[in-house]
Amino acid sequence: MNYRHAFHAGNFADVVKHLALIAGLGHLRRKEAGFAVVDTHGGRGAYDLAATEAARTGEAAEGIGRLTDVKGGPAALTTYRELAGGAVYPGSPLIAAKLLRPQDRLVAVEMHPEDAAALRQTLRPYAKARVEEGDGYKRLVALVPPPERRGLILIDPPYEAPDEFRFAAQAVAAAYRRFATGIYLVWFPIKSASEANSFCGEVLACGAAKVLRIDVEKRGVAEGKLAAAGLAVINPPWQFDDEMRAALDIVLPCLDCLARFDWLAGKD
Ligand SMILES: C[S@@+](CC[C@H](N)C(=O)[O-])C[C@H]1O[C@@H](n2cnc3c(N)ncnc32)[C@H](O)[C@@H]1O
């Protein structure tokens, strides 16, 4: 477990992933009934963009740092700008915690003891947010279906282990069998097109009727650094793709990125 998200927080891939998270939660918040969020790989929850980690890679400067003049756009983008506009960049569990209503709740799992402790500290003010230190894949199966029967699952592993793609796809399949109506956001790096395609094929094999894939590629990235990433969205809510397209139309030119939307199954 060498991966530390502090080096990458607020980069172009985080921007897109966190916009998608906010768009998904925005949909769930439209109905009065409560929902659950499970964040299987939570990280620390908050990242000081002036700290040495962020400064060393410069990834945040090339990501969220390029969005300072962005205004307007769809609700997901304005909410993202409000939440991520400061010197401390919010990770996915903090974003989710800030968007919970009293009837909603969050379980964020983090395996690294230090990061789990930091996450616990970050989420302390949020009564409806709980941190579990452990293996997010194993915990996910135990946490679904949520009693609320409405929810969003974020699966955002570091992909440092060679078999992480397999673990992630297996976790999706196991969770989907138990909770087929949930919204799932599954993040993946794209280092090779064939690896990413076969991963999406495995995700699709869970049997979901609606799966949207969003790939984002950043131009001019130094060799050896992540230049492309994808999100497989299972059960994207109604008009989720329109909202993401509208947000990305504004954001991607600032980030020097291109996106591609593919319906792997179904369509609105
Ligand atoms: C990409 S980061 C998560 C970033 C976070 N989701 C966000 O958007 O702010 C991946 C995190 O997963 C943690 N991790 C690695 N293996 C794990 C596992 N099996 N279960 C839970 N957490 C794990 C790492 O320590 C790291 O903090």
From TrEMBL:
Monomer. It catalyses: adenosine(2030) in 23S rRNA + S-adenosyl-L-methionine = N(6)-methyladenosine(2030) in 23S rRNA + S-adenosyl-L-homocysteine + H(+). The keyword Glycoprotein does not apply. HAMAP family: 23SrRNA_methyltr_J (MF_00934). It comes from the Bacteria. S-adenosyl-L-methionine binds at residues 18, 41, 92, 110, 135-136, 156. Gene3D superfamilies: Vaccinia Virus protein VP39. It is an enzyme of class 2 (transferase). This is Ribosomal RNA large subunit methyltransferase J. Signal peptide: none annotated.
